From TrEMBL, chain A:
Residues 17-112 form the Rhodanese domain. GO terms for biological process: glutathione metabolic process; hydrogen sulfide metabolic process. This is Putative hydrolase. It holds the Pfam family Lactamase_B. Residues 352-363 have a biased composition (Basic and acidic residues). Residues 352-375 are annotated as: Disordered. The keyword tRNA processing does not apply. GO terms for molecular function: hydrolase activity; sulfur dioxygenase activity. Keywords: Hydrolase. The keyword Metal-binding does not apply.
Automatic annotation (TrEMBL), chain B:
This is Putative rhodanese-related sulfur transferase. PROSITE patterns: RHODANESE_1, RHODANESE_3, UPF0033. Residues 101-189 form the Rhodanese domain. It comes from the Bacteria. The keyword Thylakoid does not apply.
Amino acid sequence: MTVKALASGEVTKKILHQENVFVLDVRNERDFKDWKIEGASITHHNVPYFELLDGVEDLLPILPNDQEVLVVCAKEGSSVMVADMLSEAGRDVAYLKGGMKAWSEHLEPVKIGNVTGGGELYQFVRMGKGCLSYMLLSQGEAALFDATRIIDVYIDFAQQKKATITHVFDTHLHADHISGGRAIAEKVNATYHLPPKDATDVLFNYEPLVEGQTYTIGSTTIAIQPLYSPGHTLGSTSFIIENTYLLSGDILFIDSIGRPDLAGKAEDWVGDLRETLYERYKALAPSLIVLPAHFMIMEEMNEDGSIQKPLGQLFKENHGLQVENELTFRQMVTNHLPPQPNAYQDIRETNMGKQQPDEEQQRTMEIGPNRCAVR
Amino acid sequence: MKADSVVDAKGLACPMPIVKTKKKMKEVDEGHILEILATDKGSTADLKAWAKSTGHEYLGLESQGEVLHHFLRKGGASSEQKGQQIPVQPLEQFQHMVLTNALDGLILDVREEDEYKAGHIPGALHIALDKIESRAVELSKTQPIYLICHSGRRSEVAGQQLKDQGFTKLWNVVPGMMHYAGVIEKKGE
């Protein structure tokens, strides 16, 4: 029987097309519990590869015949071994090319919409980690928002679209993933913009974001209005593009709201978070399409694979926006903080330029699920 | 830590470190300490989980630069080749018997001396696993013996050795001292 390799992009498409996939995850139990491939059409079974060294016979009865069986491990090696064994036992199976390492680094571009002058806005969905980044294209120029460290994807994409990246923005100093903002700005000679209040300790040059400023991308003027919206971090800034899109960073997600404690200041920052969500965002047009920097659960994803919803709808549905009483809100936020992301302190220092981890170390730092939200 | 033999899995990616370790484990005797050299960072979590599921004991990790030195002790008969097990005495019931003075027989603690000194059941006799074979003559074959260690693994091995010498009234307390909640004594033998 045959064994085929499936790339992360192909698995992503299966998830977006609601195709049933049986994931046989052969990593150890702890890693599996920590994070895995998720999707409405995905079924999981976890058996560590080291329990299969003597044979896969016990597995055969539980493998479905009517759907793709995808063997997954950390870096591919063990999944190839198990897939080969299953193949010898007479089963057609696939393995995930590059393992969860590759899965964590795959970015899927999804078109959000058009902007004035033939421009386009794309959302880059990092399935394995829930990070969302954005590229705004207009007449040969491009702006990037909350870029991940997998910078070649953006550079190649811009090239395909015959555009030059001129501006790179981060909504805040990220603590859950390593920003590709600085690296990409250096590589393509673009300007890197950061909120100054998040950047007090950074060891490199950047352009401070100022509230109310507008930027021009391409020959058409596109208004990117930074909106000071603290709460997740002190400097968290949102962007409004053409009065249509609200890039909310880690302040407001589709199903949840940002956590204010990543720099260890939950008590101090919860007030800012409250004000940003219940006053500043409330005053914005309900028709704005909210485009967050993360998603946590697959239910947040629309059928086209995008993660977006009108602000007005979120004020009706997002549980974090329904708490009238400020004290209740404070308690909800501070009592329900999830565990902090893996290595978040190292990640922050890397994003400040204080640490220079190599690629392998960066991968290790980012392993695991995203934990930026309170639910 | 001193190992009896070494498995070199440097530069090898998963699953090879465990494949090589498993192969070597089959060749060595119970209680044998294996040192595994690996550079794959995932080997730590995997070797620990593998040891747990197969009944070997993960003793510890020492790193020297890029190289991880894992130490494993080969587990007893209960692990790989499933022989006749020593009858299990569940800890909870055992604890109750100790508490109510209802225990008829000898408690034999087979852990290392340091472990024994750090806390043991009052009245327990201490003979470390590696001395069981030579000191079995000190024990009576007619009285019941309750074997205990940290987890129940070494006591199983000790029980097998006593069984080979003709002991019949053996019980293995599972799990061992790791979950023992009764009174303990902290002094020498």
